[in-house]
Amino acid sequence: MFANSESYPLRTVEISRVALLTNPKAGKGNASRAAEIARQTLTRTGVDVVGISGSSAAASRQLAKEMIADPDIDALVVCGGDGLINLALQAHSYSNKPIGIIPSGTGNDTARALGISLDPRRAALTVVRGFTSTCDLGKLRDVHAKERYFGTIACAGFDSLVSDRANTLAWPHGKARYNLAMLVEFSKFHAIPAKIYLDDKECIDDDVTLCSIGNTTTYGGGMMACPHADHHDGLFDVTVIHRINRRKAARNVRRFFTGEFEGFPEATLHRAKKVEIHMPGINIYADGDRMFSSPVTAEIAPAAGCFIVPRP
What we know:
Distance between the termini: 9 Å
Low-confidence stretches: none
GO molecular function: ATP binding; ATP-dependent diacylglycerol kinase activity
Cofactor: Mg(2+)
Number of strands: 16
Family: Belongs to the diacylglycerol/lipid kinase family.
CATH class of the largest domain: Mainly Beta
Largest sheet: 12 strands, antiparallel
CATH topology of the largest domain: Tumour Suppressor Smad4
Number of domains: 2
Helix content: 25-40%
Keywords: ATP-binding, Kinase, Lipid biosynthesis, Lipid metabolism, Nucleotide-binding, Phospholipid biosynthesis, Phospholipid metabolism, Transferase
Structural class: alpha+beta
Pfam family, one: DAGK_cat
Oligomer: single chain
């Protein structure tokens, strides 16, 4: 999990005062309960807790920016899912102000990548100990030069269509909504014309089912899309699923959860610092949220993140 390199330093910081950023709606409302457990745990160990919660995504992002800039705050602790962590990353990147995580979302793939317990009390105790790890982030840029950082995986293709569909459904909630959207879109399953450029050299010009750009290994609550990704190596792992018919996709769906792509000719695995995706009409998602519409460029941001993690 940890890189033995001066480029990815490990350190221990004294945690006396933290800002606790919460999304009460995350994880079907579980974030409120998790935040209270975390707050009590932190307080009992002598840590001063400043509770913050934005009324919108923009408000949460602004609060995160203010707390990261505040010299009296030792760490920004995010209680929510991957989406709220992503908002915090926009202010956090290259700041060296550590982020702690109390996982309470639906997927919790960032916490999974960092080895953070899903139990809020144990996660809070990890924050108290203040052991930090530096790691890579990804940075997306659209044709208008707008940029967004991400921590886990950016994807485009069939999964984007499923996410677009899920966002239109008022019911059900959580993973059930995503699963329903997947069933609807699978009935219209098809590959998408794409051009994918790797480090401005190799070009994949093909009909593609899915392209996953991984800083870490999983997304969607544990789907092993990029099984060999390492967020300490300065590279993306890129998994491309080429054209595949509906029947074969259904027979091999387990591969998308286990990452067992060997012997699966429709899957090709690549590594790159920069990936440019052209998929007309497709939205790109990262950390579970919609980022930009294609075309989009993803570039690795080496050692841009700093997280409080369990000591090895």
